[in-house]
Design a protein that fits this description.
Layout (H helix, E strand, L loop, with lengths): L2 E7 L7 H13 L3 E5 L10 H6 L3 H12 L2 E6 L1 E2 L2 E2 L1 H10 L12 E7 L7 H13 L3 E2 L5 E3 L6 E2 L2 E2 L2 H25 L1
Parallel strand pairs: 1-2, 1-3, 3-6, 6-7, 6-8
Antiparallel strand pairs: 4-5, 9-10
The structure holds ligand FNR.
Ligand FNR binds next to helix 1 and strand 4.
Length: about 190
């Protein structure tokens, strides 16, 4: 049974390095794993009133896509030492209903990318905390932190083979977690 992964990028910028990384993973995994990207452009600011009365279709679609996936790859830029607001907001939508959200128990691989030599490591720490709060099954290692990303992405693709292989090795850990989970609930 083909594994279905969902990729979410915390950057909605057209030339986003983070989205370029996801796109490259998608292409490298073709034929082995089905990685679908869910763009966060249309997710409105989280409002509990809106959610209780009339959940916006974009947020409903995202919850559905997360629910139907076997695992998530979440990548974010670092904005002011944290994850992007776009991603945090999307995760707030994804976290409801509390304790039985589509993220609960979901295997999740985290990545960050930045032109800085720190590679967004502080944002990654925050993402781990946030996803743990909603009971996501965050893969412990490796931590995919891509530093100097502006020199590694060319024409919208991750062009640095070492970095791509490192990210793909992390995807293997995600797939191993998904297999373990499948065995335990089979
Ligand atoms: C940044 N950037 C940044 N980088 C970093 O390593 N640490 C940081 O704290 C910040 N803060 C920050 C705040 C804001 C508002 C912006 C717009 C940018 C730089 C950021 O890493 C860079 O713009 C990346 O290229 C953004 O990722 P995408 O859009 O290329 O995926």
């Amino acid at each position: 049974q083909t594994v279905r992964l969902l990729g979410m990028s915390g950057s909605i910028r057209g030339q986003s390095y983070c989205t370029a990384v996801l796109r490259s993973l998608q292409e490298s995994l073709t034929g082995r794993v089905d990685l679908t990207l869910f763009p966060l452009n249309d997710i409105p600011p989280y409002d509990p009133d809106l959610d209780s009365e009339n959940t916006p279709p974009s947020a409903r679609d995202m919850r559905q896509a997360i629910m139907e996936s076997d695992g998530l790859i979440v990548i974010s830029p670092e904005y002011n030492y944290g994850m992007s607001g776009v991603l945090k907001n999307a995760l707030d939508w994804a976290s409801r209903p509390a304790m039985r959200s589509p993220v609960k128990g979901k295997p999740i691989l985290l990545m960050t990318a930045s032109p800085a030599f720190t590679g967004g490591v502080r944002a990654q720490h925050e993402m781990r905390e946030t996803l743990s709060s909603m009971l996501g099954r965050v893969i412990a290692r490796p931590q995919v932190v891509i530093a100097g990303v502006h020199e590694k992405v060319k024409d919208g693709r991750l062009a640095d083979p070492d970095t791509l292989n490192f990210a793909l090795a992390a995807v293997d850990d995600l797939l191993a977690e998904i297999s373990l989970l499948r065995m335990s609930i089979a």
